[in-house]
Amino acid sequence: MPSLAHRSQRDIVRVEGPDAGQFLQGQLSQDVAGLAPGAAAWSLLLQPAGKVVAWLRVQRAGPEAFALDVDAGWGAAVEARLRTFLLRTKATITVEPGVPWLAVRGEPFDVEGALPPPGPGVVGADLIGTHAEHAAAPAGAVVVGDAGWQAWRIRAGIPALGAELTEATIPAEAGPWLVAASVSFAKGCYTGQELVARIDARGGHVPRPIRVLEAEGPVTAGDVVRDGEGDVVGSVTSAAPAPDGAVALIPGRAVALAPLRRSVGVGARVLIRTSVGDVAAAVVEPAAT
Predict the structure, then answer these.
(1) Mean pLDDT rounded to a whole number for the chain
(2) pTM of this structure
(3) Which helix (H) or strand (E) segment is 4 a member of?
(4) Domain containing 62 — which CATH number?
(5) Which of 37, 161, 174, 189 gives 71 a disulfide partner, CB atoms 3.0 to 4.6 angstroms apart?
(6) What pLDDT does 252 receive?
């Protein structure tokens, strides 16, 4: 598939101070203490009961400084959750909303400030802030707008906060790849660890894993999904016109993400009930780039 580039925004939450590293080590699922200066990794911020507050990337910006970048509009929620446990901690938390972001997918992009992209088998990089402002997209990459980006994100099986990832989401529902990329099972305790560890010990089985759907007609978020016997097995959380090569959109077809009953695996055929009738769809593997 051709490479693509997309410009948008993310929020940054900065945690700084003598206790910043120790504090985040006890709040994030990632091994923050193990990050080298300038290094970054994906992580989960969880409720005490283990459900998702945010999925974010944490970067060590200095000896006592960390930058957490998260989906646009979610910085305030991350700040509020962190402040709940900030008592008697020598650290400050500030939010920078709407920071420039350049995402490159489908080819290596090794430039100053490059950060690891999310997703199973995804090749590319993210640039945040001034790095994104000053960088040009790679030669040959197709620059896509919001519609093209959403089509790529959905087909790649990457969840978004407020859609696939909500306060009711169990982390493992987003897929083993997300847990593997975002959780350190070797570090000490962190808030919400018990549920993550318990599900991992049981083989990662969850009631409603998030699935990628290729639909034979237009669908929208909220549409109900039924199996071949007519039973409701979930509902669509994100949808977009289907991408051809991850860039050009195919008229009349769609890709979607939906948390579905565990019994509905890859290869299954389902029906999506839309406002104009049923649309057939197939459950497929995420498409790596």
Answers:
(1) 95
(2) 0.94
(3) strand 4-16
(4) 3.30.70.1400
(5) 161
(6) 82
